[in-house]
Design brief:
Blueprint: H1 7-14, H2 20-25, E1 32-34, E2 42-43, E3 48-50, E4 55-57, E5 61-65, E6 68-74, H3 85-102, E7 108-112, E8 117-121, H4 124-140, H5 153-157
Parallel strand pairs: 6-7
Antiparallel strand pairs: 1-8, 2-5, 3-4, 5-6, 7-8
Bound molecules: iron/sulfur cluster (SF4).
Length: 170
C-alpha cells in the first residue's frame, strides 16, 4: 500500500497563489481572521492516519474548543491577504485526519502566520475538493509528463528538480 505521506508537502507544488476572489471561484473558503490564544495549543506527538484515503500527516498543534478538536498549522512568514490554496488543502487534510482519528469532526481549522491567524471552515465542499485533489495526485503519480501548475520563477529557482525539469522557469 502506497501512503500519501508526502502528499501534504506536495500541495505547495501543485498550487499557485490565488487571490481571495479566485479562491471563491474555486469553491474554497477564503478563511476569516481570528484571534487565537496559543497557550491552549497542544503539540501532536504521532502522525494521524486515514486508511480510507491512505493519508497521513501531523498538524503542528491541536486545540480543544467547545468539545471540538481544532488542528492548527503554523506557517513562517507574514500572512497573505487570504490563505493560499496549498495551505487550505493542507489544513483540510488535517481536519479530515482529526475527524477520522478522534471521531469528532472539526468545524474549522486554523492557519497561524507570523502576524495573523485565519480560521478556515471545514465544509463538506472543502472535504470533497480535498478528496478530488488526492485522487488526481494519485492518478498523476506515475505519469512521466505532468504540466507545471504555476508561473512562478521563484518557486522553480528553489526547486530541487529544476535541473531535470523541462518546464522550469528558472
Ligand atoms: S522546476 Fe519544474 S518541478 Fe520544480 S517547481 Fe519548477 S516546474 Fe515545478
Amino acid at each position: 500500500m502506497l501512503f500519501l505521506a508526502l502528499a501534504l508537502l506536495l500541495f505547495a507544488f501543485f498550487f499557485f497563489r490565488r487571490s481571495s476572489t479566485q479562491l471563491k471561484q474555486a469553491g474554497l473558503p477564503g478563511g476569516r481572521i481570528i484571534y487565537t490564544d496559543t497557550r491552549g495549543w497542544g503539540k501532536v506527538e504521532k502522525p494521524l492516519f486515514d486508511s480510507e484515503l491512505e493519508l497521513t500527516g501531523k498538524p503542528d498543534y491541536l486545540v480543544e474548543k467547545n468539545g471540538k478538536i481544532i488542528p492548527v498549522e503554523v506557517k513562517s512568514g507574514r500572512a497573505p491577504e487570504a490563505p493560499y490554496d496549498s495551505h487550505i488543502y493542507q489544513l483540510a487534510a488535517y481536519c479530515r485526519l482529526v475527524e477520522k482519528t478522534y471521531k469528532n469532526r472539526p468545524p474549522y481549522g486554523i492557519i497561524h502566520y507570523e502576524n495573523r491567524d485565519f480560521a478556515v471552515d471545514y465544509t463538506r465542499e472543502l472535504e470533497q475538493s480535498l478528496i478530488d485533489l488526492l485522487v488526481e495526485m494519485k492518478r498523476d503519480e506515475h505519469k512521466t509528463d505532468v504540466p507545471r501548475s504555476h508561473e512562478q520563477a521563484g518557486r522553480c529557482a528553489k526547486c530541487g528538480y529544476r535541473n531535470i525539469c523541462e518546464q522550469s522557469l528558472a
